[in-house]
Design brief:
heterodimer, A: about 350 residues, mainly alpha, ABC transporter involved in vitamin B12 uptake, BtuC, two-stranded antiparallel sheet, two-stranded antiparallel ribbon, 14 helices, globular, B: about 500 residues, alpha/beta, six-stranded mixed beta sheet, 20 helices, 20 strands, about 25% strand
């Protein structure tokens, strides 16, 4: 067999380099744009812009993108993350109002715990419909996207913006979950709470996805679900679990958003799901799953956020944003498709 | 008819590489006008690859093709079709929701002048004309849905004749036909022949060739062994050319000794597939299940493994095993090597190591579910060595291995799980002869170590030579049992088909 392989070295080589090219494109764009920006704009390569601004803004989407990566690696996807996040925000406000008599710590802790449960439960509903009932994930999450959004509308009495009634509690919450800074790199270079939360979720996510059975099985399912099932893996349960993880990350994101904006509005965060899915895909986790991962997702997210940041830096109108984002997705996906075609021949 | 040479097709020095293997190694092949040319070889010998090159399904290839006296390059199925090459695949390409006439005329429809409406009467007339010309007794207005496989095949032939195809390739057409239909098909083929068209007939039922073919070409391991006139090549000679050696060389000596009963199946029934299947499997026994495609043999295996739901009782080690599912079977020591490697076994896009370890991750997990990459790699390496997987690179993606090595990975996956019962469904499909021999040795070795083995295969010779007992399955029922190993494969085949002739 070895002899046969040596007969066709040319094809293998060219294919290999092409695959690297595909993986490197996004990273290359990211570094290139970053270099370009730091040369052209004095305010770009500063702690205030990169960490306080770019990273903190990216944290919310980043956390949800982590959950989405779990779902997508296993071959599914979730359109309902925006709606789940909004429901979680509303639940958070209601729970804090309810728990406010018991003191700030209990109220905040209890409310976050409850919201985490609600988020997980909403995700689990998606998951069970997809895996046990066997409905296509697009259809399931499209319908729950509407249902959950409607739920938020009902809970807020028709879509008014709601806030925690107790002003002191509200401020405490913002201070704890959003404003709190950690002087990890000294007082001049503090890291905000959202980034810390993101990093923790990110590290746990990496551990789960790369170093546990759960993660191994998810990649296997993305490769070939039928075969994984026939290899003796309870794929249904695992698949449902990915959606639950995704719901949980929405709950975390909801806490950060609420701490930032202080009010929950049922009609906010529309289109968030597409931005999140775009980050995952640009990063290199394909629709259909089986490869990619959290580092890829982080790179993809950073690229998309960096473009937004740069457009603000260079005062390019917000009207150009969708076009640029869309083109980036298209280029990355085209390269991916070309690479696949090459490898199939 | 071509006057200058009488050759419709000439293929010279065809080379086709797949990642990891050379599927065709400078193969020559030609077809004369008015000739039926048999193409035979084992699974994986390159018959289908050669015909897929001809049909333009594989794109790039090396070598020279002359068709109808013109040098051609065929890179897409469209080109092949337009030139007049018609391939009738085993899975037919008819559209079941359309009528016979619409199928025959697909892609050749005409629009009415002015209104641009589709011209239905033209479709009907042309189709009837072709059907009449060929003497096919088919109603052009009938939907294809519900036609027998044989008749659907006729529809495809009619469509190809209508597009003025010069060369017909039949890819194992009789695999799913009853004997009357086979007779009818052979009549049609000789009719095509008498019209001066060329026919390539792929089969691995050697007994058919003297009835239908004029010449025969044998392929083995991607190379051409030879081309002979059928009249001067008796079946044993064909068989020797195909295999390259005699059978005793590839089947190992049986060293296993059946012991206590380990698996008991009682009244297993899956409506529409099989019913009332009861048998026992002993430790260290190879139990063969012989039957034709569609007899229910695969389904029985899948039901025991819990991949399909079925009624009836299964006992494992004396205890009833209810609510079986693949994951439960896996943890109780029952494994199954599936029939379709691509769709049911390979975890595509993932590495060999991951594919080898998938069924034992549960056992390898450390604290907090931690999977040590080094330990996973070690396990994979050990299995690669044991199974002699080549190239021995655990990080290589599974789909880039050759079929034989992929199969070794799949079997290795189950070996790692140290099963008490292992079900093999078509363990040697599409793998080379060396790997086959290795598979056979492995099966006997596993059995002599005490594993109970159920061997399901359409290669009856495997079942005949390796089994300690053979169960015969016909139309979803257990109709006989015989002790093995046996030498008379033809007798086993007769047992498998016996009733089918009556059903037509």
């Amino acid at each position: 067999m070895d002899k046969r392989i040596e007969k066709s070295p040319v094809r293998k080589q060219s294919f290999l380099s092409f695959q690297i090219l595909q993986k490197a494109t996004v990273l290359f764009l990211l570094v290139g744009l970053g270099l370009f920006a730091s040369l052209r704009s004095p305010t770009f390569f500063t702690w205030a812009n990169l960490v306080d601004n770019l990273l903190t803004n990216a944290a919310v989407l980043g956390i949800v993108a982590i959950g989405m990566t779990f779902v997508m690696v296993a071959g599914g996807f979730d359109l309902s993350v925006g709606s789940m996040t909004v429901v979680c925000m509303v639940v958070l406000v209601i729970a804090m109002d309810f728990l406010s008599p018991y003191g700030a710590i209990v109220a905040i802790g209890g409310a976050i715990l409850l919201t985490a449960l609600v988020g997980t439960a909403l995700g689990a509903i998606n998951g069970m419909l997809v895996s046990y009932v066997g409905v296509n994930p697009f259809v399931v999450t499209l319908s729950t996207m509407l249902v959950f959004r409607g739920l938020a509308l009902i809970l807020t009495g028709g879509g008014q913006s709601i806030q925690v009634a107790d002003l002191a509690l509200r401020d405490r919450f913002t201070e704890l979950v959003f404003d709190k800074q950690f002087p990890i790199f000294g007082l001049q270079h503090q890291v905000s709470m959202p980034i810390v939360i993101f990093l923790i979720v990110f590290c746990v996510g990496i551990y789960l996805l790369k170093f546990t059975r759960f993660g191994h099985y998810l990649y296997a399912m993305g490769g070939n679900e039928e075969a994984t099932w026939l290899a003796g893996v309870s794929t249904h349960r695992l698949k449902a679990a990915t959606y639950a993880v995704c719901g949980l990350t929405c709950a975390f994101a909801a806490a950060i958003i609420l701490a930032n904006t202080t009010s929950a509005e049922a009609s906010s965060r529309m289109g968030m799901e597409l931005e999140v899915i775009a980050s995952v895909i640009v990063g290199g986790t394909p629709l259909g799953g089986g490869s990619g991962g959290l580092v890829s997702t982080l790179i993809g997210l950073m690229l998309l956020r960096l473009i937004v940041n740069l457009m603000t830096q260079f005062e390019i109108g917000a009207e150009y944003r969708p076009v640029v984002t869309g083109l980036i997705i298209m280029v990355v996906v085209i390269i991916d498709v070309l690479a696949k075609k090459r490898s199939q021949k | 008819m071509d006057l200058n040479s009488g050759l419709i097709l000439q293929m010279r020095g065809i080379v086709k590489d797949f990642p990891g293997t050379r599927a065709l190694d400078s193969v020559d092949f030609d077809v004369r006008a008015g000739e039926v040319h048999g193409l035979i070889g084992e699974n994986g010998a390159g018959k289908s690859t050669l015909m897929n090159v001809l049909a333009g399904r594989l794109g790039e290839y090396k070598g020279r093709i002359v068709f109808n006296g013109r040098r051609v390059t065929i890179k897409t199925p469209h080109q092949a079709r337009d030139m007049g090459i018609a391939v009738i695949y085993q899975e037919l390409r008819v559209l079941r929701n359309l009528t016979i006439a619409e199928n025959i005329m697909l892609g050749e429809e005409r629009a009415m002048p002015w209104t641009r409406r589709i011209d239905r009467s033209y479709i009907r007339q042309e189709a009837s004309r072709v059907l009449e010309h060929l003497g096919f007794d088919l109603d052009p207005e009938r939907k294809v849905e519900g036609l027998s496989t044989a008749r659907q095949c006729l529809v495809e032939i009619a469509a190809a004749v209508r597009r003025k195809a010069r060369l017909f390739v039949f890819d194992e057409p009789t695999a799913s036909l009853g004997s009357e239909d086979v007779d009818r098909l052979f009549e049609v083929i000789s009719e095509l022949k008498s019209k001066g068209l060329g026919v390539v007939y792929i089969s691995h039922r050697l007994a058919e060739l003297p009835r239908v073919a004029d010449r025969v070409t044998v392929l083995r391991d991607g190379r051409k062994v030879g081309t002979k006139d059928v009249a001067q090549c008796p079946i044993p000679e064909m068989s020797r050319m195909m295999l390259g050696h005699t059978l005793s060389e590839i089947f190992p000596e049986k060293t296993n000794k059946p012991g206590r009963c380990i698996l008991k199946v009682d009244g297993l029934t899956r409506p529409g597939k099989f019913s009332d299947i009861s048998f026992e499997l002993r430790e260290g026994e190879v139990l063969g299940i012989a039957g034709l495609v569609g007899s229910g043999r695969t389904e029985i295996g899948r039901a025991i493994f819990g991949a399909d739901k079925a009624r009836g009782l299964v006992e494992l080690g004396g205890k009833a095993f209810f609510s079986r599912l693949p994951n439960k079977c896996c943890s109780r020591g029952v494994g199954m090597v599936q029939e379709n490697r691509k769709t049911e076994s390979n975890i595509t896009g993932r590495t060999m190591a991951e594919n080898l370890n998938i069924s034992i991750l549960e056992r390898l997990a450390g604290r907090l579910g931690f999977q040590s990459p080094r330990r996973l790699n070690d396990r994979a390496r050990r299995m690669i060595e044991l199974m002699k997987i080549d190239p021995p690179r655990p990080k290589r993606q599974i789909q880039k291995l050759s079929g034989g090595n992929q199969q070794k990975v799949v079997v290795g996956r189950w070996l790692a799980a140290e099963p008490k019962v292992l079900i093999f469904d078509e363990p040697t499909q599409g793998i080379d002869i060396g790997t086959k021999a290795q598979m056979y040795r492995l099966i006997v070795k596993l059995a002599s170590e005490g594993c109970g083995i159920i061997l399901i295969s359409s290669e009856l010779i495997e079942v005949a030579k390796l089994s300690d007992r053979i169960l015969i399955v016909r139309n979803g029922r257990l109709v006989g049992e015989m002790p093995g190993p046996i030498d008379d494969v033809d007798m086993l085949f007769e047992q498998c088909v016996a009733k089918r002739k009556l059903n037509g």
